[in-house]
Amino acid sequence: MEAEHLAAQLARAIQHRTDGQHEQARRILRELLAAEPDNALLHYQMAWVHDAIGEEGAAVPYYERAIQLGLAGDDLRGALLGLGSTYRALGNYPRAVEVLEQGRDTFSDDRAFATFLAMALYNTRDHRGAMELLLRALAETSNDPQVQRYRRAILFYADKLDQTWT
Between 126 and which of 119, 121, 136, 157 could a Cys-Cys bridge form, CB atoms 3.0 to 4.6 Å apart? Predict the structure, then answer.
């Protein structure tokens, strides 16, 4: 398929998805994937459409294929977050933790991974790990003056919630 045509059609599909016209987006992406089955970006966009319409189970293979095909940059960031969140929504908590940890390790500057990972850790009953992630994120990102006033203490205690000093 001609690169300019592909780019124009992909832009149309993304606009349809953004506008909430998911079936139109899915139809275009289906046609593009038939012509370009090894295009990572098309798989990612198809996963996103399925997630947007509540078909999380159908989104998973598209996310996985997009990542396998070498998705990179912000698209990889979105795919890892989407896949991890989707696994959590489907109740596959261990796989959600695995994918979200991969995303956090790959994109250490993105606090969304820590937040979604905290939710998945909560679901796996790792409450200590979930609280630590959330407390660190709160202390390191909050602009609230009272939180910042106790930032050092929050960070110190974030991984010591079960300890006492008597």
Answer: 121
